[in-house]
Specification:
Blueprint (H helix, E strand, L loop, with lengths): L2 E6 L3 H11 L10 E7 L2 E7 L5 E6 L2 E7 L12 H7 L16 E7 L3 E6 L8 E4 L4 E4 L17 H10 L13 E2 L4 E5 L6 E4 L1 H7 L9 H19 L6 E4 L4 H12 L4 E6 L5 H13 L2 E5 L6 H13 L14 H4 L5 E3 L4 H4 L15 H9 L6 H7 L2 H4 L2 H15 L4 H25 L4 E3 L5 H9 L2 H4 L3 H10 L1 H4 L17 H6 L3 H11 L9 H6 L4 H10 L3 H5 L4 H7 L13 H21 L1
Helix pairs in contact: 3-14, 5-16, 5-18, 6-7, 6-18, 8-23, 8-26, 23-26
């Protein structure tokens, strides 16, 4: 992405010192291109891939910058900075400001009326803000803010509790007091002497609730969904331009691959993993079936601690909880791919509907959903209550739990839609956003989920059509049956195709046999050939190195947490982590603590 920072400050000496301190630090990875834009009291700087789509304009009337691709819903044209300045006039009524499709952030500054900033429809592109009334700082990370003399670093205990409960920034509160992340589909408005204000895009809400297709027959609902996905992909990845594809062995990227092939886009696919792993084997079959070029790559374990210490902890500030720190290494494999990269990021959450884990709609109360879908990647409240020092956190655990319940119950009237909307605005937003953020340093991600027409279609369809990925699976079977007959990575040992034959379905009724068969064919590395289980295992060499790196900073965590409980939860690096249940779910809270320890080293 474009790692950017901007300042509005009437003191030129402070403004220049801030820019001089921040500009070189934005170059997180080698080979990035520097850029800047200034007008009056405003100045912005950024560091981005030379292939990143960035535009800016500055003159006596002010300035405007677009980082990424802001796509017009009506024409699929990319919005220019001059068009942006005309449409986001800080002196006009916020109700007239439009939002656009695509993955982007943008800002307009007018010396008379102040500043307007915004981002994509779901708020995936990170935009952070801080102001004391006289100075405004906005950036893609909270990290640059500490270099302004008016900013004082202070932990926000409520922000940390939100992260530890939900594995993301609850209500946009960060680890630093006064620093917030811009909400989805909102504009940031600011002028000298005032506090930052948020204005929601009211027209988007009207677009998403204008019609109801619940009475359409199921085949017509599926046809409407397929048409919306196909239109979105055509607008975000023009058929005449070559495109990269991040291809896993799963459902989301397989659906994208099918539509790319149908529209005739020259495609080069990349899959991360080792040759014998399930992801790579399934993805290779898809690429072969479509006749597209396919590459594989694997990030070495010794790179894990570098990314964890210098990038994940320092620049993400636990915005996505523990995140997948090795994802920073993808950039080195994206160079040979085209400048635009198609992918299935957050399609599972958007098109896949609510994941109910076997619960019926009338069972989707907050108390039933919270441990299964909201808190499953965080610390259980009972454990967190034992861990937090009362003198630091007071009653914040209780009040944050109450606020999470309030937001969940207010997100929609219908139980299935309530669950879907809450997860899209929390889990999908932060985890999908950080995935796109990292990819931008190599190729610009085409996120078809950030499409107004597609989102409108999904909100008009009943959740009973989408729930538990039923519509997504049916769409693949209907539109691309040849791909539906191929083995499907389900993040487990079973790779049963969606359109499996009778014999295959019978064999896969015995999962223990499939697991034994797979391990017998592929011994070594704990007998593990599930990509995500291998890279998330805290006992693999990469995570052991991160644990060793974080261990000297355990004392910093003891200022926040009860030492005995902390030591009970987080074993030292010379002791293996013992998993009782699912390796991925159980490891979430430990990875949070490790990244928090590395963050605390430089920020507490």
């Amino acid at each position: 992405m474009a790692n950017f920072a901007l300042i509005v400050d009437r003191d030129p000496a402070r403004r220049n010192r801030f820019i001089a301190a921040v500009a070189p630090r934005l170059h997180l990875l080698p080979g990035l291109r520097a850029g800047s834009c200034a007008a009056g009291d405003f100045q912005a700087v950024w560091a981005a891939s030379p292939r990143a789509p960035i535009g800016s304009v500055s003159d006596p009337l002010g300035a405007a910058v677009v980082w990424g691709e802001a796509i017009s819903p009506a024409s699929a044209d990319r919005i220019t900075p001059l068009e942006l300045r005309e449409r986001w006039n800080p002196g006009s009524d916020p109700a007239t400001w439009p939002t656009w499709d695509g993955f982007f952030a943008a800002v307009v500054f007018d010396p008379r009326f102040g500043l307007v900033a915004g981002a994509d429809l779901l708020g995936l592109f990170p935009v952070y803000e801080w102001s004391d009334g006289d100075v405004l700082l906005v950036a893609s990370s909270a990290e640059p803010f500490q270099h302004h003399p008016s900013f004082r670093r202070a932990l926000d205990p409520a922000g940390l509790v939100g992260v530890m409960l939900t594995n993301g920034l609850f209500r946009g509160r960060t680890l630093w007091q006064g620093v917030n992340r811009l909400p989805p589909a909102n504009f940031l408005r600011w002028r000298h002497g005032s506090e930052p204000a948020h204005s929601p895009d009211g027209r988007l809400a009207n677009d998403l609730t204008s019609r109801d297709w619940s009475r359409l027959p199921p085949p017509e609902q599926l046809e409407a969904l397929g048409g919306a996905v196909e239109r979105a992909l055509r607008r975000h990845t023009p058929p005449e331009e070559p495109c990269g594809l991040l291809l896993s062995g799963g459902l989301d990227s397989r659906l994208v691959a099918g539509y790319l092939d149908r529209q005739g886009t020259p495609t080069t696919a990349l899959t991360l993993g080792l040759p014998g792993e399930i992801d790579v084997r399934c993805a290779r079959r898809v690429a072969r079936a479509l006749g597209i070029e396919h590459r594989t790559a694997e990030l070495r374990y010794e790179r894990y601690p570098v990314f964890a210490e210098t990038l994940t902890s320092r620049w993400e500030h636990l915005a996505a909880g523990w995140s997948v720190t090795h994802g920073w290494g993808q950039r080195e494999f994206l160079g040979p791919l085209p400048a635009r990269l198609a992918n299935g990021i957050i399609l599972e959450w958007i098109v896949g509907g609510a994941r109910t884990l076997g619960l019926e709609p009338d069972q989707l109360s907050f108390d039933a959903v919270f441990p299964r879908k909201i808190n499953d990647s965080g610390f259980p409240p009972a454990l967190l209550g034992r861990l937090l020092r009362p003198g630091v956190f007071g009653d914040l655990l209780r009040s944050t739990l109450r606020d999470v319940r309030t937001d969940y119950e207010a997100s929609a009237d219908e139980p299935l839609r309530r669950l879907w909307r809450f997860l899209v605005s929390h889990r999908a937003r932060f985890h999908g956003g950080v995935a796109g953020w990292r990819l931008c340093f190599g190729s610009w991600p085409a996120l078809i989920a950030l499409d107004r027409d597609l989102l409108a279609t999904l909100t008009r369809l009943p959740q009973t059509t989408l729930v538990d990925r039923k519509a997504e699976q049916a769409l693949l079977c209907r539109e691309f049956p040849s791909l539906a007959r191929l083995p499907l990575d389900r993040n487990g040992f079973l790779t049963t195709p969606l359109l499996a034959g009778r014999l295959r379905r019978w064999v896969d009724r015995f999962p223990s046999y499939a697991r034994t068969r797979w391990r017998g064919r592929h011994p070594g590395a704990w007998g593990e050939r599930r990509y995500y289980y291998r890279i998330h295992n805290l006992n693999n060499p990469g995570w052991i190195a991160i644990r060793r790196l974080a261990e000297p900073h355990r004392d910093a965590l003891r200022t926040l947490f009860v030492p005995e409980v902390l030591d009970e939860i987080l074993p030292p690096p010379d002791q293996p982590v013992r998993y009782v249940g699912d390796l991925i779910d159980e490891g979430h809270k430990l990875r949070q603590l490790l990244i928090l320890a590395l963050w605390a080293k430089d920020h507490l």
